[in-house]
Design a protein that fits this description.
By secondary structure, the chain is mainly alpha-helical. The chain contains six helices and no strands. The longest helix has 19 residues.
Length: 99
């Protein structure tokens, strides 16, 4: 299972495109795209939209991949366990009902 950045790099490499080519097409700096691919920087929501459009991907699916990375990193950082995710799921359901 690849991280968000690794997936972007795989897509780019499969398309036989350079970092520069993709960065130019989506309107970001080449070094920023490289950092996103290495998971050194997190893309903005707008950048995720641009990447999805460029690679003809479903924006929601790409956003899920990004968010799942964020959650996984936070869980690892806090040395939490799967029970934390179960509690979070219940809280999400609760918060959705309150809306």
């Amino acid at each position: 299972m690849a991280t968000f950045g690794e997936q972007i790099r795989l897509l780019r490499e499969e398309a036989k495109l350079s970092l520069r080519e993709v960065a130019e097409q989506i309107g970001i700096d080449t070094s920023l795209l490289g950092k996103i691919e290495r998971n050194d920087r997190q893309p903005t929501k707008e950048q995720i939209k641009l990447v999805a459009k460029f690679f003809n991907l479903d924006e929601k699916d790409l956003m899920k991949e990004f968010l799942s990375d964020q959650i996984a990193y936070k869980i690892m950082e806090e040395e939490a366990d799967i029970d934390t995710l179960k509690v979070a799921e219940k809280k999400i359901q609760y918060l959705k009902m309150k809306k």
